[in-house]
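[Discussion] Sanity-checking designs against the backbone

I'm trying to build intuition for which residues belong where. Below is a structure token string of 552 positions. I'd appreciate it if someone posts a full sequence so I can compare it with mine line by line.
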């Protein structure tokens, strides 16, 4: 099987011709592909190739959520953990996000030019190799560097998966495949903590990174045999200035967002300077792409209102999702006192909802329209996150589980229709680029969610707990107030040294009250963002006939 191109639909072809004159793939080439594209592959072959891609997506997507569960262990002193500081704990995640988001566009465009299967294999090999090395990282610094390398190779891997799906399937089959892809991405966020919790119960912290290498090894053998190669046959010249400007812009913006989350301040120079520099680079990138003969991303696609709103909706969706997962892991482990395994089990309803509802989203989009389906999903998320802002340490865990299931159900109604709109707007030869737009907006939104909701959580917690720490030396008061984990560690130490009750000040209870107050504010902000996304979709998004045609 060596099919190079699978055709876009007639509606997409006409729209792409209107949006961007001078498409890089001639219409004759599209027609030629239409006559020999999908038909050169049997249905069984496409299904097998799709299954391999889904397993790859599951493992890589799990990697981010796995880290949330292992953080507490990594903070412990060797040999149990790595003795990581609060800043290092944040950078275990930040290093991955920075490399991944900064190089996403480069990875997608490389797939267009050199072949999506080839970039998938390169991404798999590097991701698996650095996952294995992460398992045996001797220090926190080493683990940060290895996580960055994992993010770098994931930037080539993830865009290739969605691009290959758009080539494998057309019309209704593509919409169904994207629904399954969305379900796997969402479910991985909940399955990851469960897998990590099970491993940490029996093995050392590095075992959580050993999930990846065996799957990667199987994929490296199966992909060349069963997944066809796809690329833009016109082989346009590589847009080096565009690549450098896009990478610099995304790196600057993401780094600034990370700094804001780490420092709990959006006005400091370390936050404003990189974000401003990143925005300038993105503006210059857009101007360059408008003039370039072979742009890596034709920015005129953003004049399509549906395309732009779909991208923004995904960013706002993942703002609430990533920020929410960040909050709930602290709530379950630090407030409810659950183990890593029990925390993973508690997040499982989210995955079950995604698996149950995401494949049905395309049918709902046909019956009610993508606008109503996705807008309703965001309203469900807004209601669920607002209800989560009302929970406390005394709330029944079953209430939490139901709300988490509702969150997953809402997400499953938003992600497939909006993703389908993005990938169906760009021409087939730009499948890697459309995948990158989808992933970049998700990643930027998720990074903002962690930074904004994380800084709100940390700032409100600090404000609430610091007045209760006056009995501690001024030099360590700020450090103890930096997180509920730090406060609880001091409280445990005070209890173990049998200090007088008036010195202990019931610090455990006070830390719990301060965190509940802080998470109420953070969840409320998340709810407002989800509501804004619902209004954006319901008020401004317009369905195309192509949306219904592809879903039928």
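Best answer:
Here's mine. Compare freely.
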């Amino acid at each position: 099987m060596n099919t190079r191109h699978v055709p876009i639909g007639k509606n997409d072809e006409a729209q792409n011709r209107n949006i961007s004159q001078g498409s890089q793939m001639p219409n004759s080439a599209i027609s030629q592909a239409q006559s020999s594209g999908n038909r050169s592959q049997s249905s069984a072959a496409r299904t097998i190739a799709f299954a391999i891609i889904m397993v790859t997506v599951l493992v890589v997507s799990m990697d981010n959520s796995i880290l949330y569960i292992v953080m507490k262990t990594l903070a412990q002193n060797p040999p149990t953990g790595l003795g990581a500081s609060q800043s290092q704990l944040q950078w275990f995640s930040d290093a991955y996000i920075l490399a991944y988001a900064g190089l996403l566009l480069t990875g997608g465009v490389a797939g267009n030019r050199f072949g999506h299967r080839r970039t998938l294999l390169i991404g798999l090999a590097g991701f698996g190799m650095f996952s294995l090395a992460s398992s045996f990282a001797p220090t926190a610094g080493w683990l940060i560097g290895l996580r960055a390398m994992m993010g770098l190779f994931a930037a080539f891997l993830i865009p290739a998966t969605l691009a290959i799906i758009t080539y494998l399937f057309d019309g209704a089959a593509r919409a169904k495949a994207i629904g399954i892809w969305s379900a796997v991405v969402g479910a991985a966020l909940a399955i990851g903590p469960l897998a990590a919790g099970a491993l940490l119960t029996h093995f050392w912290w590095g075992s959580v990174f050993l999930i990846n290498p065996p799957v990667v090894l199987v994929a490296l053998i199966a992909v060349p045999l069963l997944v066809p190669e796809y690329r833009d046959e016109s082989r346009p010249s590589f847009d080096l200035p565009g690549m450098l400007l896009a990478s610099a812009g995304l790196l600057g913006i993401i780094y600034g967002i990370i700094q804001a989350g780490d420092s709990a301040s959006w006005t400091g120079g370390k936050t404003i300077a990189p974000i401003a520099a990143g925005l300038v680079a993105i503006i210059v990138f857009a101007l360059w792409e408008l003039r370039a003969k072979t742009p890596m991303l034709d920015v005129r696609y953003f004049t399509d209102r549906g395309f732009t709103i779909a991208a923004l909706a995904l960013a706002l969706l993942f703002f609430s999702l990533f920020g929410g997962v960040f909050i709930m892991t602290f709530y379950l482990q630090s407030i409810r006192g659950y183990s890593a395994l029990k925390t993973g089990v508690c997040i499982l309803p989210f995955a079950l909802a995604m698996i149950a509802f995401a494949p049905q989203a395309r049918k709902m989009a046909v019956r009610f329209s993508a606008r109503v389906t996705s807008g309703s999903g965001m309203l469900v998320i807004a209601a669920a996150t607002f209800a989560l802002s009302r929970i406390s340490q005394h709330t029944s865990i079953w209430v939490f589980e139901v709300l988490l299931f509702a969150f997953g159900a809402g997400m499953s109604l938003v992600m497939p229709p909006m993703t389908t709109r993005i990938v169906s707007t760009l021409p087939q030869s730009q499948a890697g680029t459309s995948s990158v737009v989808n992933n970049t907006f998700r990643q930027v939104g998720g990074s903002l969610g962690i930074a904004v909701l994380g800084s709100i959580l940390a700032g409100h917690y600090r404000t609430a707990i610091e007045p209760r720490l006056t009995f501690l030396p001024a030099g360590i008061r700020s450090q103890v107030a930096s997180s509920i984990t730090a406060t609880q560690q001091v409280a445990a130490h005070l209890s173990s040294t049998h200090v007088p009750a008036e010195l202990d000040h019931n610090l455990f209870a006070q830390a719990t009250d301060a965190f509940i107050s802080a998470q109420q504010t953070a969840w409320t902000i998340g709810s407002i963002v989800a509501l804004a996304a619902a209004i954006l979709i319901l008020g401004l998004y317009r369905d195309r006939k192509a949306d219904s045609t592809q879903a039928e």
